[in-house]
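Molecular record:
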Amino acid sequence: MAAALAALLALGVGGCDVSVEEPEAPPANSGNVGEQLSELTVAEAGSMKGYSRNRFPHWRDTGKNCDVRDSVLQRDGKDIRLSGCNVVGGRWESVYDGRTFTDPSDVDIDHMVPLANAWRSGADEWDDAKRGDFANDLTRPQLFAVSASSNRSKGDQDPSQWKPPNRAYWCTYAEHWVAVKHHWRLTVTSAEKAAISDMLGGCTWASKR
């Protein structure tokens, strides 16, 4: 993405609205999600003592006057318009609830595994640099452009406490949650693991494995 944006700027389009092809989304992980779920450590949720969103520095710069938020908006939207590398227009469909938006200011960037949840499941022991890597992770399925209402309804809850209103997204949601927790070696509660197992149990691809 950085290379693509640099190319646009080199062509002298900085400051002008341009349409670009959206970047590719992070890969899904259905081939080994069951194995990854079984490998997650089950533990009680830790304390929130010492927690602050500032302990997870975000959003990182990804170009002149733009950041990781712009990167996610560009990746998850259609008919994207840029001013320099800032996303100023497009069309976004929130996978959590199916709502559609054309103004980027109406879209939130959700952390699949919320920062506070990560803190309670092991991130409290990281340094701020690693927490920043987690908060800005564009490689794993961790960051998504969704409706502000669904993001704020979710808050810092895990799948035993909150699931997307769009039930058709449950399989992908559970799969992504496991992928993020597994990569970052974060723990799950017993209720969280049971809820994920239940969500995966209804997946067509899972029933064939």
User: Anything to note?
Assistant: Residues 58-202 form one domain. The mean pLDDT is 86. The chain is about 35% helix and 15% strand.
